[in-house]
User: Which sequence fits this backbone?
């Protein structure tokens, strides 16, 4: 009997080390958004910004949410956005930002 498993060739991606997630800065996201609004095509934007097509698609799909978070961003919360952040961390950061803004208003008024 022939064992079919031993006859299967290994995938070309088996020995390739998995890349870790890259952080994408807020400035890079804003630049990508501006380029796409100016009419740059998806593949050209991927190449010029050195980003994976899936990352560009995700950013453009969540453009409204990103713009809303930019309106409430402070210098602390403008640290690079990382993929895979938990929702709890995002909520905590937003509440901390609101608390800091409230303290600043009370201090200066």
Assistant:
């Amino acid at each position: 009997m022939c064992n079919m498993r031993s006859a299967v060739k290994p995938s070309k991606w088996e020995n390739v080390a998995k890349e870790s997630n890259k952080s994408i800065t807020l400035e890079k996201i804003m630049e990508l958004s501006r380029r796409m609004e100016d009419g740059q095509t998806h593949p050209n934007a991927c190449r010029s910004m050195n980003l994976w097509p899936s990352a560009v698609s995700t950013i453009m799909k969540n453009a409204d949410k990103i713009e809303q978070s930019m309106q409430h961003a402070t210098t602390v919360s403008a640290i690079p956005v990382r993929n895979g952040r938990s929702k709890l961390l995002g909520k905590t950061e937003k509440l901390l930002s609101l608390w800091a803004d409230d303290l600043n208003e009370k201090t200066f008024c």
